[in-house]
Amino acid sequence: MVDTPTADSPAEPDITHVNPAAQKAWFGHPRQLARLFTTEMWERFGYYGMRALLTLYLANYFLFSDRTTNGLYGGFTALVYLTPLVGGLLADRYLGSKRSVKFGAIIMSLGYFTLSLGAGLGQQATPYAVIDGTRYEVTVEGSGKQAQQYVTLAGDKLAIKGKEDGSVDLVATDGHVAKAIPKGGFEPGGDRSFLFTMVLLAGLSLITMGNGFFKPNISTMVGELYEQGDRRRDAGFTIFYMGINLGSLFSQLLCPWLQEHVGWWAGFGLAALGMLFSWSLIQFDGGRLDGYGEPPKDGPDRSMIIYICALVAVPVILFLFTNLMNAPEPVEGSGFVGYLIALPLMGKLLFGTFLIGIPAILVWSWRVGTRTELQMMLAAMVLIVFNVAFWTLFEQAGSSLTLFADRNTNLSVFGWFSITPGQTQFFNAFFIVVLAPIMSVMWTWLASKGLEPTIPVKFSFALVGVGLGFLLLVWGSNYADSSFQVGIWWLAGLYLIHSIAELCISPVGLSMITKLSIARIVGMMMGVWFLSISCAQYVAGVVAQFASVETVGGQVTNLEVSLHTYVGVFTNIAIVAIIAGGVLFLLSFPLKKWMHGVK
């Protein structure tokens, strides 16, 4: 019961300047963090559930080649992180973070439902092969790693066996090689519906657009919960980041399970339901987020124009995906210039935006900011560049590592049961959920002792960690069985090391942007952070293409060749990551001065 003052009672002190909501806490943090934590958790449930299926959907359902699969996956994830650059700017200037998040959630859910619709109504592609200019139908017997592809020539059923030099043998039932086809003489393909290919790309385009409005602005709202200098900020972002992985943990188990036992449409449909739930949490917040993420008070309301333009831009994104799929390969011997010319429009857009945007922001900071602000922005930009290196190497999880799990990993768990290739991605989320609170407490304890590593040092630890994770998997390949399969625990070990590395950079990076950025462009700088990840995602797709192996009917033709290919690429990734981490560690000392006490 609330007491009401009377004429005889003493006057109550004036507390109208105090925000009561700010006095409530959730595990020592503002209570609004719980609502944002849950909203992000369900959004990531949808995204990572879809991502666990996407590469396998492209390779095994649409029967795209490894080059097309990895390129399209990399292009999609690149645009997912590029559109936040625009979404953050629009939120800063016109919409406010909260309305941007609501709109993005609706568009993303439509994208997931579109993928589900296409998978439910469409037909799986049928394989074929062109041999010496003649097309032959391909039949596949068995599934997964036991699958065998056949063609029929002159009435004989011949097994397709790929070789390490790129040539193909057609083997008769008695084991002799009936026909040896030199490299380039065997071209696998798949008959697929143009309509449902466009439905696939339309779904990806909607997800891309929605994510651009959602992703940077939910993080910006978290930053608004803390005053400048609040030492809880890093811990708060780490808790927020744990919510991301809590959502992805369950979806990466459930969506692949539904795909395996019900169908592709069910896996994508569950992702859509998770996204709708995320929208409901921010739409019906009961006033808990009043005062956070609000639009600018001055100027006209341009929200409807922005929403319409965003929907009109969806076909533009679809065109970029189509252009990416049809991009020619660089001419051998054409060099770097030839590579740049052969880049699809998406590649030119990404690299052009990054190479122009970073210097432009620094010039603007030099003109309008103080010397201290300029140095802090310089430090942020150096870390953003190394962020590109980290995510390029780390983000093999959804592409080459998932295909490695599908082809060269024994997915049996202690012989009790087996998981699907898509479910292997849950290891990362599981380790993040387990380790995030531990590392949050660790950073807080180290900070209280004055021993917490600087942000650049944490970034360098992350890069070295990525390299060590891949080296562990390469070591494990020495113990592959007679079927050229590595035990699942080597892959789990990689994800354990990578999860520790991720916790050294991603939540710290989000917090770093909010602390080093000039205040009036923090939303745009959050977009630049995601732009760096966007470039990394695109390059990650290119790196994954180096791990491409010959497939027919969605299955590799030689598991020994694929194992050697993956090991070679993973070794090179490990070397680059460790060297980059060492360079950043040396740079951490001058960067510490530029950061002017930001920790």
Poorly predicted runs: 1-22
Q: Tell how many strands the DSSP assignment holds.
A: 15
Total helices: the number is: 17
Strand content: 5-15%
Helix content: 55-70%
State the major sheet.
7 strands, antiparallel
Helix-strand makeup class: alpha+beta
User: Looking across the biggest beta sheet, what order are the strands in?
Assistant: 8-7-6-5-4-3-9
Instruction: Based on Cα principal axes, name the global outline.
Output: globular
Overall pLDDT: 82
Termini separation comes to 45 Å
CA radius of gyration:
26 Å
How would you characterize this protein structure?
The chain is built from 17 helices and 15 strands. With 599 residues, it is of the alpha+beta class. Strands 8-7-6-5-4-3-9 form a 7-stranded antiparallel beta sheet, with no helix packed on it. Strands 1-2 form a two-stranded antiparallel ribbon. The radius of gyration is 26 Å and the shape is globular. The two termini are 45 Å apart.
Write the layout of secondary structure elements.
Blueprint lengths: L19 H4 L1 E2 L2 E2 L1 H30 L4 H30 L1 H25 L4 E6 L2 E8 L6 E6 L2 E7 L5 E4 L5 E5 L4 E6 L2 H31 L8 H29 L2 H20 L19 H23 L9 H8 L2 H24 L2 H24 L5 H9 E2 L1 E2 L3 E2 L7 H23 L6 H23 L8 E2 H29 L5 H24 L5 E2 L2 E2 L2 H36 L5
Parallel strand pairs: 10-13
Antiparallel strand pairs: 1-2, 3-4, 3-9, 4-5, 5-6, 6-7, 7-8, 11-12, 14-15
Helix pairs in contact: 2-3, 2-6, 2-7, 3-4, 3-5, 3-8, 3-16, 4-5, 4-7, 5-8, 5-16, 6-7, 6-13, 6-15, 10-11, 10-16, 11-14, 11-15, 11-16, 11-17, 12-17, 13-15, 14-15, 14-17, 15-16
